[in-house]
Amino acid sequence: MKGVILDAVKDLIVDNFGLEKWMDILENAGLPRTAVFSVRDDVPDETVLKVVKSISNTLNLSPEEVADAFGEYWASIYTPKVYKPYYRGIQSAKELLLKMNEIHRKVTENIPNAHPPVFKYRWEGSNVLIMKYISPRGLVEIFMGVLKGVGKFFKTTLEIERISQDEVRIEFKE
Ligand code: HEM
Protein backbone atom coordinates (compact mmCIF):
# COMPACT_ATOMS: atom_id res chain seq x y z
CA MET A 1 0.00 0.00 0.00
CA LYS A 2 1.19 3.50 -0.68
CA GLY A 3 3.02 5.32 2.13
CA VAL A 4 0.44 8.08 1.81
CA ILE A 5 -2.01 5.94 3.78
CA LEU A 6 0.36 5.69 6.76
CA ASP A 7 1.24 9.38 6.44
CA ALA A 8 -2.47 10.14 6.89
CA VAL A 9 -2.74 7.68 9.79
CA LYS A 10 0.20 9.41 11.46
CA ASP A 11 -1.37 12.88 11.05
CA LEU A 12 -4.63 11.60 12.50
CA ILE A 13 -2.94 10.10 15.58
CA VAL A 14 -0.57 13.03 16.16
CA ASP A 15 -3.43 15.57 15.78
CA ASN A 16 -5.63 13.73 18.27
CA PHE A 17 -3.26 11.99 20.68
CA GLY A 18 0.19 13.58 20.23
CA LEU A 19 3.55 12.43 18.86
CA GLU A 20 4.48 10.28 21.88
CA LYS A 21 1.40 8.08 21.37
CA TRP A 22 2.24 7.70 17.67
CA MET A 23 5.75 6.54 18.64
CA ASP A 24 4.26 4.08 21.16
CA ILE A 25 2.04 2.74 18.37
CA LEU A 26 5.04 2.24 16.06
CA GLU A 27 6.98 0.51 18.82
CA ASN A 28 4.07 -1.79 19.68
CA ALA A 29 3.87 -2.66 15.97
CA GLY A 30 7.53 -3.73 16.06
CA LEU A 31 8.74 -0.70 14.09
CA PRO A 32 11.34 1.95 15.03
CA ARG A 33 9.78 4.79 17.06
CA THR A 34 11.05 7.25 14.47
CA ALA A 35 9.90 5.35 11.34
CA VAL A 36 8.92 7.72 8.53
CA PHE A 37 6.62 6.82 5.63
CA SER A 38 6.89 9.10 2.67
CA VAL A 39 3.92 9.60 0.39
CA ARG A 40 5.36 7.64 -2.53
CA ASP A 41 6.92 4.77 -0.54
CA ASP A 42 5.65 1.31 -1.23
CA VAL A 43 4.76 -0.03 2.22
CA PRO A 44 3.91 -3.74 2.51
CA ASP A 45 0.20 -4.26 3.29
CA GLU A 46 1.34 -6.36 6.24
CA THR A 47 3.05 -3.32 7.82
CA VAL A 48 -0.07 -1.18 7.36
CA LEU A 49 -2.18 -3.86 9.02
CA LYS A 50 0.33 -4.20 11.90
CA VAL A 51 0.11 -0.45 12.55
CA VAL A 52 -3.71 -0.53 12.43
CA LYS A 53 -3.71 -3.43 14.90
CA SER A 54 -1.28 -1.61 17.16
CA ILE A 55 -3.51 1.51 17.15
CA SER A 56 -6.41 -0.61 18.23
CA ASN A 57 -4.36 -2.22 21.06
CA THR A 58 -2.51 0.92 22.17
CA LEU A 59 -5.59 3.18 22.21
CA ASN A 60 -8.02 0.47 23.25
CA LEU A 61 -10.28 0.94 20.24
CA SER A 62 -12.10 -1.78 18.30
CA PRO A 63 -10.89 -2.43 14.71
CA GLU A 64 -14.18 -0.93 13.53
CA GLU A 65 -13.57 2.27 15.52
CA VAL A 66 -10.09 2.54 14.00
CA ALA A 67 -11.49 2.03 10.47
CA ASP A 68 -14.15 4.70 11.09
CA ALA A 69 -11.68 7.21 12.53
CA PHE A 70 -9.25 6.65 9.68
CA GLY A 71 -11.91 6.76 6.96
CA GLU A 72 -13.38 9.95 8.34
CA TYR A 73 -10.03 11.64 8.58
CA TRP A 74 -8.94 10.46 5.11
CA ALA A 75 -12.06 11.65 3.31
CA SER A 76 -12.99 14.74 5.29
CA ILE A 77 -9.58 16.24 6.13
CA TYR A 78 -6.57 14.60 4.48
CA THR A 79 -7.56 14.07 0.82
CA PRO A 80 -9.40 17.42 0.44
CA LYS A 81 -6.12 19.05 1.55
CA VAL A 82 -3.48 16.84 -0.10
CA TYR A 83 -5.41 15.94 -3.28
CA LYS A 84 -7.35 19.19 -3.67
CA PRO A 85 -7.35 19.22 -7.52
CA TYR A 86 -9.39 15.99 -7.59
CA TYR A 87 -12.20 17.72 -5.69
CA ARG A 88 -12.44 20.56 -8.21
CA GLY A 89 -15.94 20.85 -9.64
CA ILE A 90 -17.34 18.15 -7.37
CA GLN A 91 -20.36 19.43 -5.44
CA SER A 92 -21.75 16.40 -3.67
CA ALA A 93 -20.98 13.07 -2.03
CA LYS A 94 -22.80 11.33 -4.87
CA GLU A 95 -20.61 12.97 -7.53
CA LEU A 96 -17.40 12.10 -5.67
CA LEU A 97 -18.40 8.47 -5.17
CA LEU A 98 -19.32 8.07 -8.84
CA LYS A 99 -15.89 9.37 -9.84
CA MET A 100 -13.88 7.13 -7.51
CA ASN A 101 -12.63 4.66 -10.17
CA GLU A 102 -11.39 7.55 -12.30
CA ILE A 103 -9.79 9.33 -9.32
CA HIS A 104 -8.04 6.22 -7.99
CA ARG A 105 -6.78 5.45 -11.51
CA LYS A 106 -5.39 8.97 -12.00
CA VAL A 107 -3.86 9.21 -8.52
CA THR A 108 -2.04 5.90 -8.86
CA GLU A 109 -1.21 5.71 -12.59
CA ASN A 110 2.40 6.76 -12.14
CA ILE A 111 2.98 4.82 -8.96
CA PRO A 112 4.41 1.36 -9.49
CA ASN A 113 2.70 -1.40 -7.49
CA ALA A 114 -0.37 0.62 -6.57
CA HIS A 115 -3.56 -1.43 -6.67
CA PRO A 116 -6.42 0.81 -5.66
CA PRO A 117 -9.84 -0.75 -5.18
CA VAL A 118 -12.38 -0.76 -8.01
CA PHE A 119 -16.08 -0.09 -7.47
CA LYS A 120 -19.13 -1.32 -9.38
CA TYR A 121 -22.33 0.69 -9.10
CA ARG A 122 -25.97 -0.30 -9.11
CA TRP A 123 -28.85 2.08 -8.45
CA GLU A 124 -31.97 1.13 -6.53
CA GLY A 125 -33.90 4.33 -7.16
CA SER A 126 -32.45 7.81 -7.52
CA ASN A 127 -31.13 8.07 -3.95
CA VAL A 128 -30.06 4.53 -3.19
CA LEU A 129 -26.74 3.34 -4.55
CA ILE A 130 -25.22 -0.10 -4.13
CA MET A 131 -21.43 0.02 -4.34
CA LYS A 132 -19.59 -3.25 -4.82
CA TYR A 133 -16.04 -3.12 -3.50
CA ILE A 134 -13.48 -5.08 -5.52
CA SER A 135 -10.04 -5.51 -4.01
CA PRO A 136 -8.02 -8.53 -2.91
CA ARG A 137 -7.29 -6.61 0.32
CA GLY A 138 -10.83 -7.01 1.63
CA LEU A 139 -10.81 -3.74 3.58
CA VAL A 140 -14.58 -3.29 3.65
CA GLU A 141 -14.50 -1.68 7.13
CA ILE A 142 -12.12 0.99 5.82
CA PHE A 143 -14.29 1.47 2.75
CA MET A 144 -17.31 2.06 5.02
CA GLY A 145 -15.31 4.44 7.22
CA VAL A 146 -14.28 6.43 4.15
CA LEU A 147 -17.92 6.59 3.02
CA LYS A 148 -18.84 8.12 6.39
CA GLY A 149 -16.05 10.66 5.93
CA VAL A 150 -17.34 11.59 2.47
CA GLY A 151 -20.78 12.27 3.97
CA LYS A 152 -19.19 14.40 6.68
CA PHE A 153 -17.09 16.39 4.21
CA PHE A 154 -20.11 17.24 2.03
CA LYS A 155 -22.33 17.75 5.12
CA THR A 156 -24.78 15.19 3.78
CA THR A 157 -26.44 12.44 5.77
CA LEU A 158 -25.59 9.08 4.23
CA GLU A 159 -27.21 5.93 5.55
CA ILE A 160 -24.63 3.21 5.07
CA GLU A 161 -25.35 -0.48 5.43
CA ARG A 162 -23.26 -3.51 4.53
CA ILE A 163 -25.52 -5.88 2.61
CA SER A 164 -23.07 -8.64 1.67
CA GLN A 165 -19.41 -9.62 1.81
CA ASP A 166 -18.44 -6.89 -0.67
CA GLU A 167 -21.51 -4.68 -1.16
CA VAL A 168 -22.61 -1.56 0.67
CA ARG A 169 -25.98 0.15 0.34
CA ILE A 170 -25.82 3.93 0.49
CA GLU A 171 -28.93 6.04 0.90
CA PHE A 172 -28.44 9.74 0.15
CA LYS A 173 -30.70 11.72 2.49
CA GLU A 174 -30.38 15.02 0.56
C1 HEM B 1 -9.66 12.19 -3.64
C2 HEM B 1 -9.93 11.19 -2.80
C3 HEM B 1 -9.12 9.92 -2.74
C4 HEM B 1 -7.82 9.67 -3.06
C5 HEM B 1 -6.78 10.66 -3.55
C6 HEM B 1 -7.56 8.26 -2.82
C7 HEM B 1 -6.34 7.61 -3.01
C8 HEM B 1 -6.05 6.34 -2.63
C9 HEM B 1 -4.72 5.73 -2.67
C10 HEM B 1 -3.44 6.40 -3.18
C11 HEM B 1 -4.84 4.47 -2.17
C12 HEM B 1 -3.73 3.42 -2.01
C13 HEM B 1 -3.74 2.50 -3.21
C14 HEM B 1 -2.61 1.48 -3.19
O1 HEM B 1 -1.63 1.68 -2.49
O2 HEM B 1 -2.71 0.47 -3.91
C15 HEM B 1 -6.24 4.29 -1.80
C16 HEM B 1 -6.75 3.15 -1.23
C17 HEM B 1 -8.09 2.99 -0.90
N1 HEM B 1 -9.12 3.84 -1.21
FE1 HEM B 1 -8.93 5.73 -1.91
N2 HEM B 1 -8.71 7.67 -2.36
C18 HEM B 1 -9.68 8.64 -2.29
C19 HEM B 1 -10.97 8.49 -1.89
C20 HEM B 1 -11.56 7.27 -1.62
C21 HEM B 1 -12.97 7.08 -1.42
C22 HEM B 1 -14.03 8.18 -1.48
C23 HEM B 1 -13.13 5.75 -1.16
C24 HEM B 1 -14.40 5.00 -0.87
C25 HEM B 1 -15.56 5.31 -1.37
C26 HEM B 1 -11.83 5.14 -1.17
C27 HEM B 1 -11.56 3.83 -0.86
C28 HEM B 1 -10.29 3.29 -0.74
C29 HEM B 1 -10.01 2.01 -0.10
C30 HEM B 1 -11.03 1.08 0.55
C31 HEM B 1 -8.61 1.83 -0.20
C32 HEM B 1 -7.77 0.69 0.39
C33 HEM B 1 -7.12 -0.17 -0.62
C34 HEM B 1 -7.92 -1.36 -1.01
O3 HEM B 1 -9.04 -1.56 -0.50
O4 HEM B 1 -7.44 -2.14 -1.88
N3 HEM B 1 -10.90 6.09 -1.48
N4 HEM B 1 -6.95 5.44 -2.11
Describe this structure in words.
The protein folds into two domains: 3-61; 75-172, H-NOX domain (Alpha-Beta Complex), CATH 3.90.1520.10. 51% of the residues lie in helices and 14% in strands. The protein contains seven helices and four strands; from the N terminus they run ααααααββαββ. The chain has helices spanning 3-17, 19-28, 45-58, 63-82, 93-98, 100-108, 140-153, and strands at 118-123, 128-134, 158-162, 167-172. α1 (3-17) packs across α4 and α3 (45-58) packs across α4. It binds protoporphyrin IX containing FE.
Q: What's the gist of this structure?
A:
The protein is α+β, with helices and mostly antiparallel strands and 174 residues long. The chain has helices at residues 3-17, 19-28, 45-58, 63-82, 93-98, 100-108, 140-153, and strands spanning 118-123, 128-134, 158-162, 167-172. It folds into two domains: 3-61; 75-172, H-NOX domain, CATH 3.90.1520.10.
Question: Main β-sheet, in a few words?
Answer: 4 strands, antiparallel
Number of strands: 4
Give the name of the CATH architecture of the largest domain: Alpha-Beta Complex
- The CATH homologous superfamily of the largest domain is termed H-NOX domain
Oligomer: single chain
Q: Element order, helices and strands? A: HHHHHHEEHEE
Shape summary: globular
Structural class label = alpha+beta
Cα-atom Rg, whole angstroms? Answer: 16 Å
N- and C-termini, Cα separation: 34 Å
What structural keywords apply?
single chain, 174 residues, alpha+beta, H-NOX domain, 7 helices, 4 strands, 51% helix, binds protoporphyrin IX containing FE
